[in-house]
Amino acid sequence: MSKVAVFGAGYVGLVTGACFADLGHEVVIADILPERIAALRAGEVPIYEPGLDVLLERNRERLSYTLDVAEAVSGAEFLYIAVGTPPTYSGDADLSAVWTVVDSLEGVAGRAVVVMKSTVPVGTGEKVRHRLDARGLEHVGYASNPEFTAEGTAVRDFQHPDRIVIGAFEDADAEAVAELHSGIEAPIVRADVASAEMIKLAANAALMTRISFINEIANVCEATGADVVSVAEGVGLDRRIGSSFLRAGIGYGGSCFPKDSLALKQLAANSGYHFQLLNAVIEVNELQKRRVIGKLQQHLGGLRGKTIALLGLAFKPHTDDVREAPSLVLAGRLVAEGAEVRAWDPVVHGADVLPQATILGSPLAALDGADAAVIVTEWPELADLDWARAADLMRNPLLIDGRNLLDPRALRAAGWTYDAIGRASA
Ligand code: UDX
C-alpha cells in the first residue's frame, strides 16, 4: 500500500483521494481553505457527489486532511495535483494554483512522483519538470494521469474507468502510477507526457463536438419536420458512431467542457493554428443556450412582465454545480428582456447563485401562476411530476422542454402547450 498526498479538496481531489483510500492506500488531502479542511475533519462533505460521503466515511481510518504542505508531503510516494485550472481572460488556462503547489513542495523524500490530475495545457508537464529541477528536486518523478470522471458519476467513473492514461518522463514512474491503480480493471494507456495531456483535451473536444453536432441536427429537424430523438436513436445504433453524447438540448455547461474547449482553442492559437472546428463547436453551444429565448418569444410575444419558471439550475442532474450552466445565461437573458424569473432546483438552493431570480422550494411552487416554464436540467423529479396538476397552476401552461425529458404527447394530453428541442414532428 502506498502513501498518497492529494493537493486540492475540490470535486476531483476529493474523489481521487477517497477512491485511492478505498483501494487501501493511505491518503492525505491538502487544501488552502481552512473552512474546507475543518468541515472534512468534522466528517462533512463540502460538495454534492453521489457515493462520495459513503466512501469518505468507510475509509475514515486511511484519510486525513491538512492545511500544511509539509505534513502532506512527509513520507508520500505520490503527490497528486488536483487543483483548479480556470480560464483567464485570454482563454489560456490559469495555472497559478498548480504553480503554488509545485513551488511549495519541500522535503520530498526518495523518488516520490508528482502526478498531474488537473487538466492542463499540453507542455505543462515539461514546464513543471524544469521547475522541479530548478528547485533541486531532480530526484522527484513526474507523471500526467488525467481524470475522465463526470460530475454526478465521478466515483463510479473513477472505479470503473474506460481507460487509465499515464504519461511519464521515466518508465519507472509510469509503472509506479499504474501499480497505484491495481484493483481497478481497465486498459492502461501509456503515452509520453505531452500526449497524455492532449488525450484529455482531445477526448473532451470530441464529446463537445458530438453535442454541438446533434444540437445542429436538432435545429435542422425543427426547420424540416423531423424528430431529433428518433434521429439520434437511428444514428447512434450505427456501431461506428455509437449512441452516447447524442442528446440534443440547450447546450453543454459545467466545470470542464467550456473551460477545456477554450484552453484547447487557445493552445492551438498560441502555436499559430486556427482550430476551426472547435471554434464552431463553441459558437454553436453559445447560440444553443439562447435558443429557448426565441421559442418563448414565439409563443408569448414580448417577454416584458411575463413570469418564467426555470426548472433546474445545475448544469446537469445529480450535481449542485452551476458553473457555466445554461440556467445562468437563460436567467440573465430573460431578466434583460424584462421577464420575472423564478427557479427551482432540488440541490441548488442558494439565492446567491441567481440573485436576479426568486428561488422556490418545489417545482409546483415555481410553476404557480407562471406564464411559461423551461426544463433546464433533466432532474428525475421532473420526469415524475404530476404535469396535469401543474398545468392547472399555470397562468398559461406553456412548457419548453430544454432537455427533451418528457413525452410530447402525454404533455399535450395533460393540457400543456409543449415545445422541445428538435422535435417539430413529435
Ligand atoms: C465532462 C466529461 O464527461 C468528463 O470526462 C471530464 O472529465 C469533465 O467533463 P461533466 O462536465 O461532469 O464531465 O459532465 P457530462 O456528463 O460529460 O456533461 C457535460 C455537459 O454536456 C452537460 O451540460 C450535459 O447536459 C451536456 N450533454 C451531455 C448534452 O447536452 N448532451 C449529451 O448527449 C451529453
Topology:
Blueprint: E1 3-7, H1 11-22, E2 26-30, H2 34-41, H3 52-58, E3 63-66, H4 69-73, E4 78-81, H5 96-104, E5 113-116, H6 124-134, E6 141-144, H7 154-159, E7 164-168, H8 171-180, E8 188-191, H9 193-224, H10 228-236, H11 257-270, H12 276-300, E9 307-311, H13 326-336, E10 340-344, E11 357-359, H14 363-367, E12 372-375, H15 380-383, H16 387-393, E13 398-401, H17 408-413, E14 417-420
Parallel strand pairs: 1-2, 1-4, 2-3, 4-5, 5-6, 7-8, 9-10, 9-12, 10-11, 12-13, 13-14
Antiparallel strand pairs: 6-7
The protein binds uridine-5'-diphosphate-xylopyranose.
User: Order of strands across the widest beta sheet?
Assistant: 3-2-1-4-5-6-7-8
The total count of helices amounts to: 17
Radius of gyration: 23 Å
The pLDDT mean sits at: 96
Number of DSSP-assigned strands = 14
CATH superfamily annotation of the largest domain: NAD(P)-binding Rossmann-like Domain
Distinct compounds present: uridine-5'-diphosphate-xylopyranose
Shape: globular
How much helix is in the residues? 40-55%
Extract low-pLDDT stretches: none
CATH-level-2 architecture of the largest domain: 3-Layer(aba) Sandwich
